[in-house]
Design a protein that fits this description.
The complex is a heterodimer of chains A (143) and B (438).
Chain A: E1 5-14, H1 23-34, H2 39-59, E2 62-70, E3 73-81, H3 88-91, H4 101-105, H5 113-120, E4 123-129, E5 133-141
Helix pairs in contact in A: 1-2, 2-5
Chain B: H1 2-8, E1 13-15, H2 25-29, E2 35-38, E3 41-44, H3 54-58, E4 64-66, E5 79-84, H4 98-107, E6 112-113, H5 117-133, E7 140-141, H6 146-155, H7 169-185, E8 192-198, H8 203-208, E9 220-223, H9 224-241, H10 253-256, H11 263-268, E10 273-277, H12 279-291, E11 299-303, H13 319-333, H14 369-384, H15 399-407, H16 417-437
Parallel strand pairs in B: 5-6, 5-8, 7-11, 8-9, 10-11
Antiparallel strand pairs in B: 1-4, 2-3
Helix pairs in contact in B: 4-9, 5-7, 14-15
Classes of the chains: A alpha+beta (143), B alpha/beta (438).
């Protein structure tokens, strides 16, 4: 059964835009807080969104984050145009990263992004095509 | 008095309508938009207020009253102990030393006074250890400022886990003093009144807190500003001709660092900490933590007032002089490192209590997402039609809060004077048009 969509909003994320890094996840967080969603859920969603958003900023050229609320879940899909991920299995390992030294110097690229999303979400899917882009899907239960 | 807090509301300040003339000073000063002016009087939105006391600082009418105690509230106790905030040491001439201040304070009518600088050292040791051993969330956040704690509980509940659950030094000193006096003088613990001499009203929230997991050891608090005049006279009396009455107190110069902004960071000797003071700066940093930008920082020292407690709403000396006084004192006592080899009275006490900070659910906490969404959309629609001048004439601090109040049925669209004006102009032009056509 198709779940009823209560709210939907899309956000654009530009690659290399470190200045605005984290701003999409903050907007999402604001909305969830305003709706009175439980703090634990808000925390999980914002961690996942932040990691996903930073991945686009660090590696891709452009990303579209689609944010949906249903009765039971917060659903995020994030599609980006970028280099894609060569070996998803490796990328899912904690500590594995292809970040450049510059990015690491800025305190990012510790290789915890995707594992963190997996850890904090209730449903997680990832598809990637090298030199085209990555599609990320995750879901967090509201209750 | 503690009952008074829980009876009326859970806040440490009270709005006295008879003294309020409805000026908008407090409305604009409130950093969390928790004040409304309705029917010409300021009122507090209890689920939004964080007890920072910014409104107390700006209200010149005395209409915002801190719910602290006066001396007489403690007459029922057999024995009274005053435990002053370190900020008290900075309120007088730089040549007046803490020992003089403490001895004089005792003379104003307490049976005993206790210095907290030693307790500060123990607490900082425990905090430093907790931070070093932390493998969980980062950054950890200091929990000694009650306003910052309440702000997190109310507005950033997802960061409650980041608070360091170490007992505050004044609480530790109070608990130890009560036990010690009871044992030493054979007085029942509940016959001892332990009183905090406070720079701010928000400490009253900690003091009023009585739950299974955590109960304060204080029976109340008297503002520094309340005792200042009496204490001032007592100090001059003792300095004048009664120097022999100045008692010895074992004050830790190192512990005094606790009172200064950046002091915790310095005391813990951890090079990956930041310090933030002033409520608007605190809000900014909490937003940054929310964004995930501080995930690499170990610890954030947070104070709601500029220059931490020295800038509290119930201090007397201006904060810059107070700061210099404090630095002079730290120099005078000359300890720049954790004192080694000294007997530590406090190490046996349990300083960590993970359950101190509960989430305070605000008005918004609910499970009905659908109606909450409906409200949010409604609010957006109303906001779009507002002038966005944030004039405050409607009694809500901003157009956005007005839209929210509108949705909650507390105000009507035409309470916005710009909207009302538009409507009237429209009516006038309708009438004029009507007359001409007749």
């Amino acid at each position: 059964m198709e779940e009823e969509i209560l709210y939907n909003q899309s956000f654009q994320i530009r690659g290399r835009d470190f200045v605005n890094g984290g701003s999409v996840s903050v907007q999402i967080k604001r909305i969830l807080k305003e709706l009175g969603v439980k703090p634990e859920v808000v925390y999980k969603v914002s961690i996942c969104c932040y990691e996903a958003e930073m991945n686009v900023i660090m590696y891709a050229d452009l990303g579209t984050l689609d944010f949906t609320i249903t009765f039971d879940d917060v659903i995020i899909t994030l599609e980006d145009e970028g280099p894609g991920i060569e070996n998803i299995e490796l990328a899912m390992q904690e500590g594995y990263s292809t970040a450049t030294p510059e990015i690491r110097e800025m305190g990012f690229g510790a290789g915890l992004g995707l594992p963190n999303i997996l850890k904090n979400s209730d449903d997680f899917k990832i598809n990637s095509e090298v030199s085209k882009g990555t599609k990320l899907f995750f879901k967090i239960h509201l209750n | 008095m503690n009952e008074r807090i829980s009876e009326t509301n859970s806040h440490s300040i009270y709005f006295e309508p008879s003294k309020c003339n409805g000026d908008m000073v407090c409305l604009k000063a409130c950093p969390v938009e928790a004040i409304r002016i309705r029917d010409g009087k300021a009122k507090m939105l209890e689920d939004k207020c964080i007890d920072c006391g910014e409104c107390v600082k700006v209200c010149k009418l005395g209409a915002i009253v801190p719910l602290t105690n006066t001396f007489n509230d403690f007459s029922k106790f057999e024995f009274t102990v005053a435990i002053p905030s370190l900020a008290l040491y900075t309120q007088f001439d730089r040549n007046v030393r803490p020992r003089t201040i403490l001895s004089s304070l005792k003379k104003t009518g307490f049976d005993e006074v206790v210095d907290i600088s030693r307790a500060c050292v123990s607490v900082i040791k425990a905090t430093g250890k907790y931070i070093k051993e932390n493998t969980g969330r980062k950054p950890l956040i200091s929990s000694f400022c009650p306003t910052c704690v309440k702000l997190i509980q109310v507005r950033y509940p997802e960061l409650i886990e980041n608070l360091v659950p170490v007992m505050s030094p004044f609480e530790l000193a109070a608990r130890v003093a009560r036990k010690d006096i009871s044992a030493r003088l054979k007085i029942q613990e509940d016959e001892i009144g332990v009183i905090y001499i406070t720079p701010c009203p928000s400490k009253m929230i900690f003091i009023a807190q009585k739950s299974e997991d955590y109960s304060s050891s204080f029976d109340g608090a008297i503002p520094i500003s309340e005792i200042y005049n009496t204490l001032f006279t007592a100090i001059h009396h003792i300095k004048g001709s009664h120097a022999d009455e100045i008692e010895y107190f074992d004050i830790s110069g190192f512990g005094l660092n606790f009172a200064r902004t950046g002091g915790l960071e310095f005391m813990m000797d951890n090079d990956n900490c930041i310090t933030v003071a002033g409520i608007n700066n605190v809000l900014f940093i909490l937003d940054e933590i929310e964004k995930g930008k501080l995930n690499n920082v170990n610890f954030v020292e947070m104070h709601a007032c500029p220059e931490s407690c020295l800038g509290g709403p119930m201090t007397v000396e201006n904060v810059y002089i107070a700061r210099t006084n404090l630095l002079n004192l730290i120099n005078h006592f000359g300890e720049t490192r954790i004192p080694v080899g000294k007997k530590d009275d406090y190490t046996n006490d349990k300083l960590i209590n993970e359950n101190i900070f509960e989430h305070i659910p605000g008005e918004k906490e609910n499970n009905d997402i659908k109606s909450a969404l409906h409200k949010m959309m409604e609010k957006k629609k109303i906001f779009a039609g507002l002038p966005k001048t944030n004039c405050g004439a409607c009694g809500s601090p901003t157009c956005e809060t007005f839209a929210e109040d509108c949705v909650n049925g507390e105000v009507k669209m035409l309470d916005c004077i710009v909207k009302e004006n538009e409507m009237l102009k429209q009516r006038i032009s309708n009438i004029e048009f009507g007359t001409q056509s007749e």
